Amino acid sequence: MYTQSLSIPDAAAAPPAKSVESAHLVQKFQSRIDDDGRIEPQDWMPEAYRKTLVRQISQHAHSEIVGMLPEGNWISRAPSLKAKAILIAKVQDEGGHGLYLYSAAETLGSSRDEMLAALHSGKAKYSSIFNYPALNWADVGVIGWLVDGAAIMNQIPLCRCSYGPYARAMIRVCKEESFHQRQGYASLLTLMRGTQAQKDMVQDAVNRWWWKCLAMFGPPDSDSHHSAQAMKWGIKRISNDDLRQKFIDATVPQAEVLGVKLPDPDLKWNEARGHYDFGPIDWDEFWQTVNGNGPLNKERLATRVRASEEGAWVREAALARARKQAHTGKEAA
Ligand SMILES: [Fe+2]
Ligand SMILES: [Fe+2]
């Protein structure tokens, strides 16, 4: 998953370090960003920039691997062998996205063990969209169409992020997200050509996910206190409200082709603005879920912790094998 709006301070985040950084270094760093250059791991960077990126990239990585869970539940119940193969590939991609992102965050000096410990203890955040259940097969299609669709909208600007390893990871992630969005839409088109019960199932799933996807872009710009700094650092390129509007404008025509109704009585083309107007988002519900009180927060976290514990022997075996190979290699040399 999934979003630049995710850079939400963790409960235990340390206060920003007092600046003892020389004005010269800061100026050199900022001019490189202003010239659209990239900051690489070996380059000097302000401590606050490094911390912001570690938080954002690790939250993004956590979102990818927690994001495997709602759809992973449907692998054993996919309606055909082809649908199952597509879903397995998609869920596996999300695991891969997590790996690229943990690797990118590691270049900033944060170990994978530390990041995973923060996730497992509940200190670190991940995208709150994954704290909602996928109740039926149409949810799997709607997650691909809308959740991955919102992810693409959020992540394309990250391909131009000022931090090189993050930007490069996002290029491949975006290509794969594009496949995810299309497979979701294709699956929904199939259902919409089916029986009335199948069409109703799609409409019900759209009704449940639409507003949650709009909230994925994060709080309104007027309430996004860290945005100005993230923009100055070239981490964030487009504001939450502008991304949300782009997503709505792109999605309404897709809903028309599909034949579903988006559940917003205020959704209407505004000729003067050249955009769709839309109704108010329930931010109380968003913050409730971000703060741990969504329908599945506890279950998602418990599943990740259990997966980590049950997989410990695999990691230990892989490390033992690597050590043995390194040892054998040395002897042969
Ligand atoms: Fe992903
Ligand atoms: Fe995806």
* Uncertain segments: 12-18
Biggest sheet details: 2 strands, antiparallel
The number of E-state strands comes to: 2
Tell me the radius of gyration: 21 Å
Strand content: under 5%
Mean pLDDT comes to 92
The hetero molecules present are: fe (ii) ion
What's the helical proportion of residues? 55-70%
Instruction: List the strand order in the largest sheet.
Output: 1-2
Give the H and E element order.
HHHHHHHHHHEEHHH
Shape: globular
- The helix count comes to 13
How far do the termini sit from each other? 44 Å
Short description:
The protein has helices spanning 23-34, 47-66, 68-72, 81-106, 112-120, 137-155, 164-192, 196-215, 227-232, 240-258, 283-293, 297-310, 312-332, and strands at residues 268-270, 275-277. The protein is mainly α and 333 residues long.
Layout of SSEs?
Elements: H1 23-34, H2 47-66, H3 68-72, H4 81-106, H5 112-120, H6 137-155, H7 164-192, H8 196-215, H9 227-232, H10 240-258, E1 268-270, E2 275-277, H11 283-293, H12 297-310, H13 312-332
Antiparallel strand pairs: 1-2
Helix pairs in contact: 2-4, 4-7, 6-7, 6-8, 6-10
